[in-house]
Amino acid sequence: MNGKVSSGEVMAICVAIIFAMFPGFANTLILSQSQNASLISLIIAFLLGLIPIGMIMYISTKINTNFFEFTKKNFKAFGYILDILLILVAIFTLIISNWLAIDFIISQFLTRSSYYLISILISIIIAITINKGIETLSRTIFILFIISVPVILLLLIPLIPYIELDNLKPYIDVPIKDILKSSFVFLTVAISPVFYILGVKNRTHDKKNFPRKILVGYIITSLLIFIILFFIISVYGIDLGSLLTYPIYGLFKKVQIFGFIERIENFAAIFLITAYFSQISYFIYAIKNNLSNMFKIKSKKTKQIITYILSISIPIISIYLFKTYELAPSIEYVPYVLIIFYIILIIYFIRSLFIKTKTS
After folding, report:
1. Phi, psi of 5 (to 5 degrees)
2. pTM (2 decimals)?
3. Which of 26, 257, 276, 293 could disulfide-link 22, Cβ–Cβ 3.0 to 4.6 Å?
């Protein structure tokens, strides 16, 4: 184990952490806000998203050490404030994604099971994976990626006969402001997680291609989301599609392979769980690293304990908040909270403009 991350693994992490916020959350907001214009909204968001993605790529070219040291060196005391903000944004994101993951598993498979029990069991698996090191974590995410993404795309093929192109009309049925509002959801929910990929820049084999892999991951995920939204609208129609929390899962209930192989929706479930697992694992890894660097923790055992505490406590907090205070209806305000990410991104980008590039 050399603790290194390959370029392909960087791309896979990027795909997973972007996609994980869509099932059960962003897809519902986008479809409900921009209706049939959701595909147009997504194209606009993708093009606009190239700007912050380009900024993240540029920042990555200036990083030649671990991200905490990069922040400390270039921002001095203010760097600690930035680190704390990044940790808080990551925890906020984890509270959302943990709830989405647990709610999906419970609602679709284990309806009589305890939310807390299932979350603890999953959290222990996540903590064990993280404590194996970044190489094991990134490789696991990569393997899940190369298996799940091609399979889910292949399984969309039997849905082609169910496509009703009339369901896509009218192409624009909402005001422009609603289309832009929907694009804003993508710009915050999809882009903000990508910033955390900078945390593994110093652990990659191929630092030169690191920025390019971020871009490739962004393009792949955007295309994947576009294809899935196309099938949701064209197969279900916008009225039904916007009401379903996990429409991609429901889509595959229509599918039979060779006329007798059923329950294909379980492949979609594996795909969704893979995305949730990957994002949650990587974000906990990122928080653990930041905390370890902030408090100068060197002990491997202490770092492992921190991982277990984060892995178990955050989903418990998430479940408590959502079940006790019924926060699900308020989830539409999440993109506005994530505006803080753009403030952080602009600060890092402006500072990076004045940093001389060193050869890795």
Report:
1. -120, 130
2. 0.92
3. 26
